[in-house]
Amino acid sequence: KNAKNYINTVQAGWHVSNGFFCFFVFCDSDGYQKTGCLNLLCHGFVQTSTRITPGQIYTLDVLSLSIYRDRFTSNWRLYNDRKPVGYWPKEIFNNMADCSQVQMVGIVYSPFDEPSPLMGNGALDGAKLANVLLLVGQGNNRKPENFVEYNDLRKNYYGAIYSVENGVLFYGGLGDWKKT
Do residues 77 and 67 touch, judged by C-beta distance below 8 A? Predict the structure, then answer.
């Protein structure tokens, strides 16, 4: 198999859909080829609480999320404000038993013929992921130590800064990129 087919991912956060900020969950088990599953539209995420529902409009300024692998079931659990929301069953993944990488991302999208949108409020530090901790072993927390920025456009469109001592990723940008 192609190595890309072994890329597995779980994602949670907010995105803009039809002009509204919405809570979302996503999973994929074949490197973004065919198995991607957004919200509750397919077999991926199992919701266990009505506290916050994938796809719902989100109006608060802060979204506090935790994702971890349950050491007893090996399912990937999602929490909001330290309360369970649901989980991704271990059976839908082929390569997440011992994951080796965590990514914190900001993503924007626009059709090629339209300028790309702002990320955050448009400032480089306009959005942030704060209090980022990795759960290692039997419940030991630590801040991520290594940060590699990947930006598929020049820095004058989007950027990111990671503060190791504070465990905060700042990101944002003015956008306005358009394919010519």
Answer: yes
